[in-house]
Structure formats: C-alpha cells, structure tokens
Amino acid sequence: MDKVSVTLTVNGQSYSREVEPRTLLVHLIREGLGLTGTHVGCDTSSCGSCTVIVDGLAVKSCTLLAVQADGSEITTVEGLASNGELHPIQEGFWEMHGLQCGFCTPGFLMASLQLLERNPDPSEEEIRHELEGNYCRCTGYHNIVRAIRYAADKLSAAEAVAGD
Amino acid sequence: MYPESFSYHAPSTLDEALGLLAQHGDDAKLLAGGHSLLPAMKLRLSTPAHLVDLKGLRGQLQYIRDEGDTIAVGALSTHHQIHTSELLGSRAPLLAETAGHIGDMQVRNVGTLGGSLAHADPAGDFPAAILAAEADLVLQGAGGQRTVAATDFFQGFFETAAEPGEILIEVRVPVQKGGSSYQKFYHPASGYAICGVAAVIEGTNGTVSRCRVGVTGVSDAGYRATAVERALEGQTFSAELAASAAEQAAAGVDPLEDPFASADYRSHLARVHTRRALTAAWERN
Ligand SMILES: Cc1cc2nc3c(=O)[nH]c(=O)nc-3n(C[C@H](O)[C@H](O)[C@H](O)COP(=O)(O)OP(=O)(O)OC[C@H]3O[C@@H](n4cnc5c(N)ncnc54)[C@H](O)[C@@H]3O)c2cc1C
Ligand code: FES
Ligand code: FES
Fold it and tell me: What is the ipTM of this complex?
C-alpha cells in the first residue's frame, strides 16, 4: 500500500514521517517519534491510557489514524513539564499519591489537562464523570480525584497571583 | 491491532467526496470521527479498500445554525459541540442533553452526529432524541439532495434509509416546544444504551397537547413509541397516567436479546425509563 506523508507538531517540535495510511496515531507517536510516554492499554478505545491532546482536544490516539492528525499540533505527556518543573497536574499526582504502577497515569494527566481547561473548579462528581474514559486498575480513583483538586487549587492560586 | 490496509482519500469538497464514493462503490467507506468505524476496522470486522476522510469538509459540515423554526446541525458537529451548544441548549435541549450521555469525554470530542446516525448502532443514543424531536435528515447524493424524516431513517440493525453513495450532510431539528428528557440505562462496561428513552411533552393547564417518545437500545433500530404518545395526548397529566402510558413503551416491538439483557428485561427497562422520561419532561414543560 502506498505510504502517505504526515507532518505533526508534537510538544512544539515539527516532525514529518512517511506512514502506511492504516498507522494509528499512537503507533506513530511511540514507534515513529520514540515518545513512549503515551501508553497502549486496551487497544480497544476504552481505557484512555493513550490519551493525547490534538489541536486542543483530548483524544484516544489508538482510535485515530496518524493521517487524520496530519497538520495538527499535539501535546503528549512529555510536553507537560517545562524547564524541569512539573506541571501542576503532575505535581498533584506526585503529592496526592495519584498513581501506583503508573501505567494509566499519562492518559489521566492529559485528560485532566482538558478537564481543568474546560472547568477550572470541578467538583469530585464532575471529575469522576469527565474521566469516565480513563481506567486505573490500581488506585481506586480516590487519590486521582485528590490529585486533580490539588492541581485545580494550585492553578487558580497561580492565576490569582498573575492577576495581582 | 492494525486495520487491514486501505487507500486513504481526503477530499476537500463535497463533490469530490461524492465522486470518490461513486468511483469505488462498495469498496469505499466514509470516515468521520472514526469512533465506530476504526474499532471495527481494528477487529477486521470492517475491511474497506478505500477510506474517504471527511475532515477536509469540516469548514462546510461542522456548524449549529439558527434558521428560525429549525436548528440546522451540520453532520460533522461533534458530540461535545452539540452538548455544549448554547443555541441547542436553549432551543432544542433534548439533543444537547442526549449528547452528554454518549461515551466519555474523549469520545465526545471526536465522534460526530452524522457518523452516529449513519452507523445506526441499535445501542446508540442519538436515534432516540432524533426521533422524539422529529428531526429531518438531509442526504446528499451525486444526483442531488433529499430529506428523510427520522421515523423513516432507522430501518434495522445498522441499517438506514441512506443509499450507497449518499452522504448525510445535515440534521434539521425543529425548535422544541415543551419540556424534554433523555433517560438512559447504561451498559455497565461499554457505557452504550441498553435502553434509552427520549421524551418531549407540551401542554397547558395540566393537559398534554403533544407528546413524542423515541426509544433506543431495545429493538434492532430506534423507534417511536406511538402507543405511549396516544395514551397521553389530550389527557390530564398525572404520575399514574405516565405510568400507565409507559406500559406501552415496547408494544409491538421485538426486543433484542443478548448476554447482557433478556428481551423481558429490556421491555421492563423501556417501561421504567419511559415513565421517568415522561415525568421529567413534563416537569420541564
Ligand atoms: C469507547 C466508546 C464508547 C462509546 N459509547 C457510545 C455511547 O454510549 N453511545 C453512543 O451512541 N455511541 C457511543 N460510541 C460511538 C460514538 O458515538 C461514535 O462516535 C459514533 O457512533 C460514530 O460517529 P463517528 O463520527 O465516530 O463515525 P465513524 O466511526 O467515522 O463512522 C461510522 C459509520 O458511519 C459512516 N458515516 C460517517 N459519517 C457519515 C456521513 N456524514 N454520511 C454517511 N455515512 C457516514 C461511516 O462510513 C461508518 O460506516 C462510543 C464509541 C467508543 C469508542
Ligand atoms: S489504548 Fe487507547 S483507549 Fe485503551
Ligand atoms: S496506577 Fe496502575 S493502572 Fe493506574
């Protein structure tokens, strides 16, 4: 099958690759670009561990063709920290013990990024509802909810300071 | 898991897309959000030789427009856009509410109204709302456009009135009069509807003047529970009336049966969720 050319900006860096049309975005990210922070858990569109942000939208990258994302801007978990500083969401997972084995964590971080962008002050119920597309087999979710509340508080405090 | 190999096409106009469908016939499939098609292709349940990606048509087919008596929703509008649309929220809230019950945040970010309706999954949510809202579906073929009423669109298991070579381009939702509600019994693992009931009720001084009920998940295709509608129209609304009308929710249908829910259980769910949808819709009237 003829290969097609795909150009992506991932975490601010531009990449071009020749791929088979059937290549899934997650495989291009992991194998083509070597960014293995994005995980494949179920491979059946359920668990959310493959979640990345494509043009501002959290998507399951196991259920998107790489060609569908041609020309887009993507953020993966590798793009969250800046200058060696953890993103407040990452810090929240660290501080509140929001992970155990850590397999699901990159997906939760990326989905939480979207959640907090749309709803900077979510209730526990809203957090649980918006993260229905992400599964964790270890934590029982309680500390994940706390981690996201931690990040929400930290981000709003930072905003208040910036607004002063 | 990889899908079978295919040739990829990304047309930038509707004519180009229609041309590709005409050229490749049964070998071609449209790709919208891909959140029903790609999972099926990964499992090799679907193996199209040509994929025609509609992403280049977002500029033309992704909109939610006020057209007076009707809200026109472009086929490529996503579940998230529909769920959060202020226009739909205020003038056709049943559709906005229903969209919020689909899948999860990531699925709603990508999945489209047109893809959901064209796919006609018997456990999909939108058919119930589209039926109760009495929406019209606009299909574009090489030979021109035609409009199909929701009641004529869903024809069976993954089967619709769309002909091969036609593209669903728009859904025309009448501005809602009265109150509405969507009540869903979620499959505990997949989140799809084992049963979903959408109701719209209009009335004054306690009397129901008009009632529409759409049911999904129960039969091989979404349907209108017309016996329920008739039992309510012209009557004084009461909890007892809603309960007795809801007894007819699965009248005349052959309920689906699978390892998750027997036919009897599905009929039971249809009755319970119809009663709840009628009650909630009336409260919002
Ligand atoms: C994890 C998960 C959970 C889900 N849960 C639910 C749920 O709870 N409820 C629910 O209703 N759905 C659910 N879905 C399905 C989801 O809503 C899909 O987005 C939707 O069914 C299909 O829309 P799409 O845009 O993704 O279409 P695609 O997958 O791209 O296409 C589906 C089919 O429709 C055809 N098609 C697409 N667009 C058009 C068009 N404009 N004209 C003609 N034919 C077209 C395609 O050729 C294909 O055959 C879920 C999906 C996933 C992955
Ligand atoms: S790997 Fe994509 S949803 Fe599980
Ligand atoms: S921390 Fe192990 S799956 Fe979530």
Answer: 0.96
